[in-house]
Write a structure and sequence with these properties.
The chain is an alpha/beta fold. Helices cover about 40% and strands about 15% of the residues. It has 6 helices and 8 strands. The strands form 4 sheets. The protein has a two-stranded parallel sheet with strand order 1-6. The structure holds uridine-diphosphate-N-acetylglucosamine. The site of uridine-diphosphate-N-acetylglucosamine (UD1) has 19 residues, from helix 1, helix 2 and strand 3.
């Protein structure tokens, strides 16, 4: 999805995220000379994610399960795709937005540009967690409003902010599998 694809928030959380962009656009209109940049983080993961909370995203949920000796539980068939972006890349995207030579007010995807299935992510974490870690389990089901695939075009951020994610999926997941949680 490019940033100018029609927005279609499916639940309260998604709707409030879009609302924040609208509020920032109002601020910009009321304060001439300001530039409003919205960074649309995709599925962030990395060291010091919180453990044992449903609110931090699937990477942290799976990592917490492995820590407890339990299998990551895959909804649907595990084939749903997301763009998992490492927290260090997210930090770099923020710096790029703050220091871009002539930024224009608009939204930017902050993504790795290489989507993976949730099943692949669970498999990579289990494999790197260590010998004896349980394999992911497909449990089916879904949450109300879940979207099957969410993948982002990284092109605008590359062209206008000179931002490209640097951490590969394999390296990032290998590190995250054994990184401390908070
Ligand atoms: C994220 C938000 C969600 C918001 C949506 C749209 C978080 C944690 N989630 O959802 O609130 O509505 O963006 O902006 O911020 N999954 C499993 N097993 C689990 C948990 C999740 O298989 O135990 C799967 C889900 O089916 C989903 C995928 O993992 O396909 C990703 O889930 P999640 O990390 O919650 O992120 P989003 O769905 O992208």
């Amino acid at each position: 999805m490019p940033e100018d694809a029609p927005a279609d928030p499916r639940n309260v959380y998604a709707a409030t995220k879009l609302h924040q962009e609208h509020l920032v656009a109002c601020y910009e209109r009321e304060h001439p000379g300001t530039v409003a940049i919205a960074l649309r983080y995709h599925n962030v993961y990395g060291p010091r994610m919180p453990r044992d909370t449903p609110y931090a995203g699937v990477a942290s949920i799976f990592r917490s399960a492995l820590e407890r000796g339990e299998a990551p539980r895959l909804f649907e068939d595990g084939g749903q795709r997301r763009d998992f972006v490492h927290v260090h890349d997210v930090a770099r995207a923020n710096l790029a937005a703050l220091t871009a030579p002539a930024p224009e007010s608009r939204a930017f995807n902050v993504a790795s540009g290489t989507p993976h299935t949730v099943g692949e992510m669970a498999g990579a974490l289990s494999a790197a967690f260590g010998a004896g870690a349980p394999d992911p389990e497909v449990v089916g089901g879904y949450r109300l409003g879940d979207v099957r695939h969410v993948v982002a075009s990284p092109e605008r951020a590359a062209a206008e902010l000179d931002y490209r994610a640097a951490v590969t999926f394999d390296d990032g997941m290998r590190e995250f599998a054994v990184a401390p949680l908070r």
